[in-house]
Give the backbone structure.
Amino acid sequence: MAKFIFVTGGVVSSLGKGISAASIGKLLEARGLKTTIIKCDPYLNVDPGTMNPFQHGEVYVTDDGAETDLDLGHYERFTNAHITKDSNITTGKIYYNVIAKERRGDYLGKTVQIIPHITDEIKRSIKKVAKEKDVDVTIVEIGGTVGDIESLPFLEAIRQFRWEVGENYALNIHVTLLPFIKAAGEHKTKPTQHSVGRLREIGISPDILLCRTEKRITKEQRDKIALFCNVDHDSVVEAADAKHIYEVPLMLKKEGLDNLILKKLNIKKSDKDIKDWRNFVVKRVKSPAHEVKIAVVGKYIALPDAYKSIYEALVHGGIANDTRVNIVKIDSEDLEKKKRGKQMESVQGILIPGGFGDRGIEGKVKAVQFARENGVPYFGICLGMQIACIEFARNVCGLKGAHSTEFNKNTKHPVIALIEEQKNVKNLGASMRLGAYPCKLSKKSLAYQAYGKDNISERHRHRYEFNNAYKDQFAEQGMLFAGKNTQHGLVEVVELPSHPWFVACQFHPEFKSKPDNAHPLFRDFVAAALRAKETAK
Ligand code: GLN
């Protein structure tokens, strides 16, 4: 029978529950177990698709086109699990399903209530994923902090779940904080005691405490936490701050977390080191041979989580090239005001990520122009490809005022437009193109060189497309249409062969990059930046 690990968080938010859950997945996978993860988000939005990145951080997109929480991105990066739309359960989704059932009369005249109907729906959704994915262990991360009103139905559901499946089949891991109080010179355990107390009030007794700390915890502190929180001595696990997130699985392994979990779940598997992760990923992240500077030009620069997968994929591209990628974050609105982007002059590569809305657009156009005219490696992703086409139209093809209809409905040259605004493509609708689509690459392209094959599949999240009416004009001026969706005739990759490295794609390659298997475009972009650094010497 499948087993379950529930991960809750206490004391404060931002404890790294997602990284902890992903690291647990990594450690269990290394022991030969098939795992998956579910993220439960207590908010009322059905999914984060409509949320502002400043509120929520990046929206992570799965192959099957779900817009999900960014923690699922960590999970796909750390493990081999395949994340799908069912992997993210929100309060909104649960209520939506329950209300639909109520309207259909499925509850046969009963009064529909949080307990049992909402909690049953939560349990059903969790079991469905475990069954469909046919895994040994399902890790369920409960978003929010214990004590929040919103997460109560989820906590009640996991309490019932554990009661139903019994010991050895479900495990509660509570991620908590031991704040270090400088004046006292010690860690304080009281917030953890209170947080565990809150859990016990609602019938959940954590089996393992993952204690986030700045400094090492002493044996006395462990004993105290164990006694007051009612857990075994060996179940108080130190999770010290890591320099880099990819170190976390190694640190937890050193603390014996995988052995502890296997013991408590009564699973027998021989011990295995995560050698490749240690020797390749962590070693290169910590002490790489080379260094480059790459600018990311966007409008959500102030929030580190808004471009999470982009930043991670750049790290991966760095790992593949044994290079530290120093990311220079440039606010596209700042670029608009400036005559010249001084910061751009010191970088060896420029990346423009995806985005919506017209704020900062002209700054991005300036950044592309700078990269194109100065031979600086350029990587455009989604909006970054659209901007590259707008810039090329205006400054190379001489199409004055060329734009995307997203930003100027009445532009004379709609080089980027909605599908139905383009006459030769029909039946796709103005809805978002979401999830995996196939793409065929031209054998002459840098993209083909990177992937080493011509049929690829990548994830999308956008409404607007390149307007094929401009294809010939662009091609005459030297733009290579390097990748296309053959079924719908849509442009997916453009390149400038006269430039050292100028690749822009309509899809989001960052979602499929892993630390130990960098996405080929990110790998080659960083390699191009390294070459640019060499030639500049
Ligand atoms: N706003 C653009 C579109 O909808 C680009 C979207 C994106 O970059 N994800 O087409």
In short: The longest strand covers residues 290-298. The pocket of glutamine is lined by residues 354-356, 382-383, 386, 406, 461-464 (CB under 6 Å).
